[in-house]
Amino acid sequence: MKSSNITWHESQVTKSDRQELNNHKSPILWFTGFSGAGKSTLSVAVEKKLHSKGIRTYILDGDNVRHGLNKNLGFSPEDRKENIRRIGEVSGLFSDAGVMTLTAFISPYREDREMVREIVNKEEFIEIYVKCDLKECENRDPKGLYKKARNGEIKGFTGIDAPYEEPSSPEIIVETDKQTLEDSVSEIIRYLQKKKYIV
User: CATH number for the domain including 133?
Assistant: First the structure.
């Protein structure tokens, strides 16, 4: 049942006020790519670098969020869409609070990622395509998920029996099967500095 009779209440402290207090902008860094591409590893490394520069951050990781906020969702296309919608809304709240948010989700459908771009401030949505050859992701298989998918133990697994739609025009592309972790982190930090999200 949808809510009715609700009213949006404004705060006297604005997003700009919070950003000014923090001395940095609060974009959303949206890491997308295959399982095993390195989204979580990269987001953790980027957050550590940002933290060392005095940037207030928070990571929303796919598995972590499914332990709580989205534990009632499965992996059907409909549930995946709702998973991403909720994350988009939460990311928007963090951004409004002046916190730079890093999200690490496969988010396989282009339409769902564009939905998030519409939910939040478009100028503050930075899509980062963590590109990695599927065979390399399978070789890495840090959680043993590809093996299970190949054995038929997991259905609807992205890259095996469910699609992944590559971003059409991401703000950043890092190729984790060709670049070192340090190079990938540096590329993202340079982008944030160039676009004046951070100094």
Answer: 3.40.50.300
Per-residue DSSP letter, 196: T
Q: What residues are labeled active site?
A: 107
Residue-wise pLDDT for 38-83, tens only, equals 999 999 999 999 999 999 999 998 778 888 888 999 888 899 899 9
Closest by CA to 188, choosing from 49, 59, 33, 55, is 49
Place of tokens 């950043």: 172
* Structural domain boundaries, residue 163: 23-194
Percent of the chain with pLDDT over 70: 99
Q: Is residue 93 part of a domain?
A: yes
Query: Is the full-model pTM beyond 0.85?
Result: yes
| Rounded distance between C-alpha atoms, residue 86 and residue 150, angstroms | 30
Tokens of 137: 């992701």
Residue 35 · residue 154 · CB < 8 Å: no
Domain count, the chain: 1
Distance CA 140, CA 113 (A): 25
Provide the 8-state DSSP code for 5. Answer: S
